[in-house]
Amino acid sequence: MSIDSEVTTSVGVQYPLDPLSRAEISRAASILKAGPAAADSFRFISIELREPDKALLRAGADTVREADAVLVDRADGRSYEAIVELDSGIISKWTQLAVGVQPPFMLDEFAEGEESCRKNPEVIAALAERGITNMDLVCFEPWSVGYFGEDNEGRRLMRALVFVRDEPDDSPYAHPIENFIVIVDLNTGEVVQLQDDEKTPVPSARGNYLPKYVGPARTDLKPISITQPEGPSFNVTGNHVQWANWTFRVGFTPREGLVLHQLRYKDKGVERPVLNRASLSEMVVPYGDTAPVQAKKNAFDSGEYNIGNMANSLTLGCDCTGEIKYFDGITTDSIGRPVTIENAICMHEEDDSILWKHWDFRENTAETRRNRKLVISFIATVANYEYAFYWHLFLDGSIEFMVKATGILSTAGQKPGEKNPYGQALNNDGLYGPIHQHMFNVRMDFEVDGPKNVVYETDMEIPEDNPTHTAFKAVDRLLETEQAAIRKTDSAKHRFWKIANRDSRNFVDEPVAYRLIPTDGIQLAAGDESFVSKRAQFARNNLWVTAYDRTERFAAGEFPNQATGSDDGLHVWTKADRDIVDEDLVVWYTFGMHHVVRLEDWPVMPRQNIGFLLEPHGFFDQNPTLDLPRVSATANHCSADEGQTTH
């Protein structure tokens, strides 16, 4: 399909991996509206960069700037995928998806769904029977309906949990209206079901955390000033970043949020590739409580909600400190207009204690080098929870991915004085926090010294011939196919995995490698027969390795919203059992937090850290940081020796 010349103006030249600009998003929407999406009933789920083929980028070949778009036609509830060539104005793909396929929520739908609930006469009457008449104080929290064996007849549904405030700035999560659920058709605005079961009393005790409720702030902490008088050590050109020996590109998508592209480390003057692309692939938050409302809480915050769209605009001194470089996130609203999330991504440096040290007691001399890390982060608010996602790059070539979970618990109500084995009472008024998990999957398109890699599983083993009873050794096992590479962590064996390049050898003629240290490597607690486990099979295991396929992007599949989980995702792709030896590989790591709620998590949760580490393992011939400047103690501070500069 193509359109007339009035909308074929080029939107400018950019690097092929740069996210779409506002002008490009507007252009893509205009092209589609002038073509198959001309009807007013069409809504845009997303418009994002269609990343060019990796082989073309490696070869330095010309690429075409394209946009991927996902749309919903509210007239009939059908969904569509499109590819738009931005310069030519050609729509190279327009595909109607199968009946019942539901793309992620649009931000507009949250407000629209809440308004549908608030104005519904049946909902108003049912709440009045519970003694709640001020609808302005009622909060309808948007949740996905998931899939529990029912036939939703192709409807695009939202499941609203209901809370109520005492006053406009009161925390609604202190007052859940338990056993009261509203199901809304987001395409029609119709309330299709009201679940009004046992009338558990609404907890009345408050759970506010604002200063006006908490009282005066403490005064015993002195300020900490983080300064870099000569400015930061990174250089940024557009979305390209150079810091220390690292270079990479910053990306952003509505589904994933922050994306890192073309991550390379300069070693002896040569930029060596490590990761071609890395991002959050999926996450799911399943609840372990058997209560009717709680048992159906299992949000896929990436695939159902488009977590990038919910990125915060970050604030200096609060979310990030020091010398900051911000990147905006550009997305779209439901009618195709570009939306800029200002300061969606924050980048800064942090001191990170000592990197290495040794005191020669014979000579009474010491050598110390300090570490620092480059922090690239974004924070998303998904209704009650905040998730802060961090990539840390270190001077020695290590890479860390960390999630900091904070925000407010998704609370539940019970009769005052009841004891619930599936949750923690938060007060004596019937409020409790159900047990749940936060499960994350990160997709890493590895390129360790080139595109042909292998993966080894390394376990610690005790040899049978062990006369001293002290012997143990690390044993590598090559993972040869996708099925063989579906693995769980094993702390008893001190297990880790190495991503290696057998064609690139180090100083001692071993394959260069990076190793994945599987911290927080828990698995899904729900049983395999549960609906959530069938939909989130990526979370049953910790490691998955696939032969690269550009269409295999998300661990739970392209469209998990209301899906059964039977026909897309890692568990489906790996049935092909493709060869993964000396191939272009994608490594998927699942990790998480088993959230046994505690009193200290209320009324707002102190952050909890979870993540994993990638370390060079024979990637370098020796410690790559020997050239860092010497530091010495001067006036109780570390400073560079005379004639040296601290970087």
Question: What can you see in these coordinates?
Answer:
The chain has helices spanning 22-33, 54-59, 107-119, 121-129, 211-214, 531-535, 570-573, and strands at residues 42-50, 66-73, 78-85, 91-96, 138-143, 157-164, 176-185, 191-196, 234-237, 240-243, 246-253, 257-267, 270-286, 298-299, 325-332, 338-360, 365-382, 385-394, 399-407, 412-413, 423-425, 431-434, 436-446, 454-461, 473-479, 496-505, 511-517, 543-547, 585-595, 605-616, 631-634, 637-640. The termini are far apart. With 647 residues, it is mainly beta. The chain folds into 3 domains: 5-95, Nuclear Transport Factor 2, Chain: A, CATH 3.10.450.40; 107-214, Nuclear Transport Factor 2, Chain: A, CATH 3.10.450; 234-637, Distorted Sandwich (Beta-galactosidase, Chain A, domain 5), CATH 2.70.98.
